[in-house]
Amino acid sequence: MSELTHLNIAGEVHMVEVGDRTPSRREATAEGFIAMAPAVLAMVVSGDAPKGDVLAVARVAAIQAAKRTWELIPLCHPIALSGVSVAIEPSADGSGLRLEATACTTGSTGVEMEALTAVQVGLLTLYDMVKAADPAMTIGPVRLLAKSGGRHGEWRHPAGDTRHG
Question: Domains along the chain?
């Protein structure tokens, strides 16, 4: 296991110094799921939800969340994101929706938290938009799929990518 970098030598929490790191292209992709009743899924996918285009609102919320991650997670650095993409599609098993977010930057620290925050807020927004129709919706799991750049280079989740099966 890697050393926990948010603790100093005395075991106290601190914000990691990244100013001496060489900037590099960094990218992270995360995914999450929300399970819902089949009728609610059909309503969302068809665009017939009473609150409007649920998927569009969730995409915008996810992008906004990625941009503001540093305000939500106490030890995250403010990052100049060069891009955030969000895709929402029916999950492979048809039980709900899968949301994937990718965050990119060229900088001295990674964007894993931005991708994960985008997914979480996007899923919460989906829940909020249709909770009256199905308050029993379930969010999860959420996970980092892949990251690249920086000192540790490429990483892919050992369980693989759910997009392909």
Answer: 24-158 (3.30.70.640)
